[in-house]
Amino acid sequence: MANETMSNQEFEKLLADSYTYKINIADVVKGVVVKKEKDGYLVDIGAKTEAFLPNREISNFPDKDADEVIKLWDEKEFYIIKDEEDDEVAVLSLKKVSCAQAWQKLADMKANNENCMAKVLSSVKGGLIAEIEGLRGFIPSSQLRTGTPSDMQAGQEIEVKILEADPKRNKLILSQRQVYTQQREMVADEIISRLAVDQIVEGEVVRIADFGAFVDIEGIDGLLPISEISWERIKHPSDVIQLGQKIEVKIIKIDEDLKRISLSLKRMGANPWDEIVDKFKEGDIIKGTINKITSFGAFINIFPGVEALLPSSEIADGQVNLNSMFNLGDEIEVLIKKFTPQEHRIGLSMKDIQK
Prior knowledge:
Number of domains: 4
Radius of gyration: 36 Å
């Protein structure tokens, strides 16, 4: 009878041996949420003891409450971040599984050239931080439609394409501009067929650069060069126009092959070169304002939107130092020596006034 009696030690050994389920760090296992605790949840994953899911490991989305993501008796897949050791329970992560699934989803979308929605989180140097599927991505300024990160508001949702999705380097690069490029290509032919040179259209300024601005015309962006913004000399397009501003412009060129249109704002008004034909003539002595000083002379504003050149050789005999003689904004008296407004050229002289 003694041999038939099982000792406590033998019973415990048989019980331990009955658990053939072994978990390891980095395994993904299925489990059922069985209890809510202060700092997390207990999950039955079929091991010796229930595993623990900390609140911090529930969601990729910091603005979501745990109750929105997980509930009692939910069956989900979990990532093992710590296995069972002695009296310590296994520790799980739900967000690592979600993270892996999110990376895979984005990789599939990139492969299929699909668009997706991203939520703007913040503006940083060189671009924007945005969120997709709980992952943080970067949109370089060059990949924004406006090129200006400060135009975006936190919480704003924008449509983007995925340029790079690399989970190993935790690198997610997005593009808003490529979405507009794709949309533009889809509608460009139809829109351009309805436009004509010299046509006046209304558009919205969507991007400003040193060389000019881009204006949205019925869904496609037209280029407004800085030279076509104003008849007067300006340092930067933002001196005259602002992002988001609605303006009327004239179409000056259409390239149907490249699907590009060029615009002019200054040609919406009268051409000042036409206006001066009867106002000035060669030999007139007039007053003008210095707009620009160069090594070969100075540009003088003699009428709103009209600049004339005062060469260094026409200031005085011999060498002259224009920067020591003049300042920008100075008003000076000059003589019109050559007057060809039809060619947009006027030559001035100071020294001939003395003759």
